[in-house]
Amino acid sequence: MTSWRAPLLTVGGLLAAAGLGFIGYGLYRADTIAMAAGSTANFTVGWGVLLQSWFSAQWVLRFHDFRSAMAAVEHEGVRGVARGIPHVWGGLAVWFAGWAVIAAGIRRKPDEAEGPSAAVGAPLYPPLARFQDFHWGTLGAYCGGIFAAQLVLVFGYLASVKMLPQIGAFLLCLSAGGLIAFAGGFFGAANSKRLSTPEATIAVLYAGLPIPIFLTLLHQQPAMALLSIFDERELLAVRSLFHEVMFLSSLLGDNMPALGYWLVYGFLVLVLVLGINLGFVATSSGRVDLRLSYELFVASRHVSVFRPRLIGGVLITLLFIVVPPLLLYAIATAANAAVEMTRIQKLGLKDPLKAAAALNLLKAKRQGPTAMMTALSVGGVGVGVMALIIVLSVMSGFELDLQQKILGTNAHGVVMKYAGEAMPEYPEVMKKIGGVKGIVGQTPFILNEVMVATEGNIAGSMIKGIDPKTVGSVTDLPRYMQTGSLEGLTDPSKIVAPRLAPLNEPALDDAPTEKKKPELLRDPLIEEAPHDAPDSAKLPGLVLGKEMANSLRVTVGDRVNVVSPLGSELGPQGPMPKSRPFRVAGIFYSGMFEYDSKFVYISIDEAQSFFGLKGVNGVEVKVDDIDDTRRIMKAVRDVLDGYPYRTKDWGEMNANLFAALRLEKLVMGIILSIIIVVAAGLIVATVIMLVLEKRKEIAVLKALGVSDGGIVKIFLTEGLQIGIVGSVLGLISGLVWCLFIEKYGIKLDPQVYYIPALPVRIEPFQTALSVVIAVLISFLASIYPALKASQVEPVEGLKAE
Amino acid sequence: MGAFLELKEVHKAYFLHGKRIDVLRGVSLDIEKGELVSLVGASGSGKSTFLHVVGTLDAPAAGTMRYQGRSVFDMNDAELAEYRNRTIGFVFQSHYLLPEFTAAENVAMPALIQRQDRVMSLRRAKELLERVGLGARVEHRPGELSGGESQRVALARALMLAPSLLLADEPTGNLDPTTGEGIHQLLREVNRDLGLTAVVVTHNEVLAQSMPRRLRLLDGRVQAA
Ligand SMILES: Nc1ncnc2c1ncn2[C@@H]1O[C@H](COP(=O)(O)OP(=O)(O)O)[C@@H](O)[C@H]1O
Ligand SMILES: [Mg+2]
Predict the structure, then answer these.
(1) ipTM over 0.90
(2) Which of A87, A260, A378, A446 is disulfide-compatible with A465, CB 3.0–4.6 A?
């Protein structure tokens, strides 16, 4: 027994805090906070001490002797150290003093004087003799598991990525690492036959955490984390290596390089915990037994989630968004109660015995608090899984929509030359590309930035010289034409000005009418046609997007000027931007704002003469399988013998966009998982309630010969049942909701979203993952209560009358 | 090889508010196979504690116990569970039936824990219930049974796996004399028919006297009474 003296504890605590303050101030004065933080991080995580010493030794070795090493440290910008040293030492002293005072405040009470018991000399109860609170072997297994898992993951990935595609290598090493972590947990727990939480904590903090911390530091403060064991060049190489390891982070975008690894680490810890649990459950009773027979029988009687009323109720609640079903339920129960009561009353007048029986039946139907909690937890898990599935599916839908639009307006891949050199030899290049298997279309192009101007309006744009005959084999541009056609690009006489038939216009264009009005009004009022009619018929054609046409207020047949800052002409006051008039031959609508508001197409010949270019900028290609684009583009590169040719696929061209989308999806996933975590909290509460309620039953079961492992299994299955039923109900309702959204659609304001209805795409993998995660979390949630249940002493339970 | 059940120097104490209560102070005892033993003693003398230690529901502080030559206290959790499951049959002062299960399921539970076939176990449970005179209460839940009926179900449950050692802790303590006498009759019958060994803690002097071997717990030690 210990006794605590509050005044001493308070004073000691305050002293220690003040000491820390001093230390901080000293570090601040010495301008070494960052360095101290780095080293402290390394030090606090156990073997970081070894790492740090090794780094320091390297440092010293590099400079041959200690003094020049210190000089180098000075040189590295730690000049102000001397200024802070007294404060740091003083602070340290105060800090230790504070701890000493605290220690003085904690005393062990002396044992009460009592004679030796009668048991002196008798053989000690063997489990007492064997009792062990801490298992070094277990600690070793946990540490080894989490540490080796990460090593295998990192180095295995670095080795295998040379032979396998990134995702393949990553998944392979992740599974290998997961397996090792699992095995570490399993055998550690099997060794101690306990969960060994202290050992697990130490392992996760001291053997596991240093690696993610180290990798993070590597990015935040590379010099600090490595303390110069590498020189600049090596450092860069190592960083890029680790960057590759953080494969996930490259998916997530460049702004969060370490996040990916932390996620991986979280996964490994989860797997370790899982291994520990299964190891414990399997072997705690001295024998591996993962069968579930009577355990399931008892568990399902305890929670009874498989009641049609519960399942149906939760499903309906999820499907019809909570409130209407609850309302319906309230009305139904009220009506039912009224009917039953009058029935029983009437019955009572005739046959009291029957009435009493009916009343009994009615009362028996009422559920206890645990049944309510069970229903709530099932519903909670269901809501979480449902939300996860719906939101992720909608986000996938957006992604797919975006991808389709990008692929509609963009080619699947382009072939260009390094440094943007022109490609006059493009016919030969195209011939070679055409021979590559998987290429189904190609078209040459010229791309430049220009301004498009009308009287009074101007817009920045990308101008693209295209071959109208072949462009359709690569992009959907011809399909996107709303008014006019691409033929007008090469043959200006084909341009049909719609003002000849102005009534058709609104029908062709689904833009809001008020936007159209100025144009309609303009036609009869400002009669431009007569004065530029003769030569404008000869003007080359140009196709632009609907948004740009709206903002420039032009329509087919109108004249626009294209101004290029690049191909400048010499004017009276020096170089002047080159300008050339075009006539709008058509307007396209791709449904992607960026294109509809930015892109302008002219014919390749016009572009060549406008920009004074021989040949083209490159060739766009279409492939038969977009998921295989990367490989096909590599084949193209090989056919062209590489340099000076280079290729890019659609993914690379829009890497940032897709990375941003994926990051957003991940963040949404994490946020929504919080719902599931909350639901898991409900599961914990439910199972704890069950355990408290069933203390006596647990004791009886133990007396009948159920081992501790059996009790754990019973209560684990109870949580798991809740999780599985909730997840399945969430899955069903989530899918139903997705199908509903897909079929009947949720209309979006096209002005805001540029997309007519909420897109949905059910990805089997991510949907399955949501369910698996929910089930896993429910499983983890029931571990603690299940353990508590197994620790109920039979005698205590039997006395709890 | 020693006796069927052999206890040596078994000690047990409770600590409460810094005070030590010595309940068992070196219990040494041999019980032979097939013996029917009664145990009497003042209230609070430690009779229940003794039964719990023998049934491995409670851990002693020191001592050894051998069952057919095997050291019971050295067993691990799984072996202990199996010892309780196969060797011991418990009957407590309260029936301690599982409320979610029917009488038959309660009786069958020890077999189910052994992972025996459910249908077979339930059939045998029904036979046992008939034997204790409850053939008409097979589908009843414990809440729907009287005290005496529940105690008979508990006895049937204790006999389900034909244990070699029956430990009964005041099985009739909560019952009226007539019902109690019925239970006693049953106990004697199964002892005679199945030849099982039984230790029965009782306050009922008549019952105690009717047992072939009588023990008394006094000052933490077991003596012949
Ligand atoms: N959990 C416990 N903590 C403290 N003392 C206990 C505990 N259980 C039993 N005792 C004490 O041990 C003694 C013996 O109890 P018990 O074996 O139940 O007696 P009996 O069954 O003979 O009436 C009693 O004095 C009781 O107060
Ligand atoms: Mg008692």
Answers:
(1) yes
(2) A446
